[in-house]
Specification:
The chain is an alpha+beta fold. Helices cover about 20% and strands about 40% of the residues.
């Protein structure tokens, strides 16, 4: 039986893009909020894990090649706030400044350690991690997918231009004609027994 997809709702998808690009020279980090639901995907209703919101953590300790929770107190406060406003925590996200959406061994170890230490006691047995790779395109006129528009004398309108790559989400985010980012998103479901990549589906903002 195929793995159920992960549906990124419009607000969650937009928040992931903005959180990663706002500080694109340093990694970002946050929580994913949602739960199990049914969505219309590929022409039919399917069971999936739905992510309704992405919550970037302002207290994160951001660096170019790594990111962490600023402090245990700030982390606990964020988790309590999530519960207080009525959301369920389903996982987290972090960005990579080199454009990679690969989950490293260090990422896996840290997430599984957090799952055991902070969440297993509340009955949470799996964790969804979305990795957002961001890299600024320095020569937009030569960029794949966008070059044809520039050749026709058209300046791409601001927005997200997808490449339709599965199971990841891959595309170019055009903020302005000279400010374009290559974005790659991949989702991983982690349990103590295994780590597996899941298919990401999304609704645009």
């Amino acid at each position: 039986m195929p793995e159920p997809p992960v549906a990124l709702e419009p607000t969650a998808f937009s928040s992931l893009l903005m959180a990663a690009i706002e500080v694109h020279s340093r990694e970002s980090l946050g929580f994913l909020l949602g739960g199990r639901a049914r969505h219309f995907i590929d022409g039919r209703m399917v069971e999936c894990l739905s992510v309704g919101a992405a919550y970037p953590l302002q207290s994160a300790d951001r660096r170019r090649t790594n990111v962490g929770f600023g402090s245990l107190t700030a982390r606990r406060r964020a988790e309590m706030t999530v519960r207080a406003v009525g959301f369920d925590l389903v996982g987290g996200f972090h960005s990579h400044t080199d454009g990679s959406d690969h989950l490293s061994e260090e990422d896996e170890e840290a997430i599984l350690g957090d799952l055991d230490e902070f969440y297993a006691g509340n009955g949470m047995r799996e964790w969804l991690e979305v990795v957002v790779g961001v890299k600024r395109i320095k020569r937009p006129r030569a960029a794949t997918k966008l070059a044809s528009l520039f050749k026709l004398g058209k300046v791409p309108e601001p927005g997200f231009y997808p490449w339709n790559v599965q199971p990841q989400v891959v595309g170019d985010l055009v903020a302005a004609k000279d400010l374009i980012y290559r974005v790659r998103m991949a989702g991983y479901l982690l349990t103590r027994e295994e780590v597996r990549e899941v298919r990401l589906c999304y609704s645009r903002y």
